[in-house]
Design goal:
- With about 240 residues, the protein is α/β, with parallel strands linked by helices.
- It has a single domain, classed as Rossmann fold (3-Layer(aba) Sandwich), CATH 3.40.50.
- It is built from 7 helices and 5 strands, in the order E-H-E-H-E-H-E-H-H-E-H-H.
- The chain has a 5-stranded parallel β-sheet, sandwiched between helices.
- The radius of gyration is 17 Å and the shape is globular.
- The termini are far apart.
Amino acid sequence: MNRRKAVLLLSGGLDSTTLLALAASEGYAIHALSFRYGQRHAAELASAQKIAASYSVARHVITDIDLRVFGGSALTSDTEVPKDRAIENSREIPVTYVPARNTIFLSFALAWAEVLGATEIFIGVNALDYSGYPDCRPEFIAAFQEMARLATRAGVEGTAPVTIRTPLIEMSKKEIIELGLKLGVDYSMTTSCYDPTESGEACGHCDACRLRLRGFEEAGARDPARYASPQVARS
């Protein structure tokens, strides 16, 4: 069967795994793309490999981009990852924001989509339960969509332009988890922590852990991730 090809950005986290399950349920031949970009939480790549294998993606590529040469983020430098900070309605862009990360990732995905003849790119950005990152907003996705139209052969010729798909962008973490559970996602394979232990246990205190724990609590489900301290929902 000649299935539609799609490129999907797979981090190994909760959102991108839910997105993968959703795209798989829609019948896409998925080409998963992950990045080793110098992130301190590179354990997520092992999760991404397991997840890609479990969904039998057409191909999973892990590519290297060393963003540590620029730094500018707690995820790509020795800057301390914030713990237990107030994240509700925060307008401050946190130090865990990696400058231009989604722009870079989507550019790689766009290049691969052109080579494959894929007409869709899936990215698990979320504009509700997120940490204030500017490249997770609908405005950014709309701007990149227009850039893709202008910068690609298919876009210029009008044959099969690439569409940026963001099914999770208006969903809360609770809703994302509920969707994933409905799709049969095994969340024990995923990792979300920005500052895991050497053995891969989640800290339970960074923004990513707190948003994840709250989402599971609100969904009335248990988070199967391994935590360094007892699992407590974070408000």
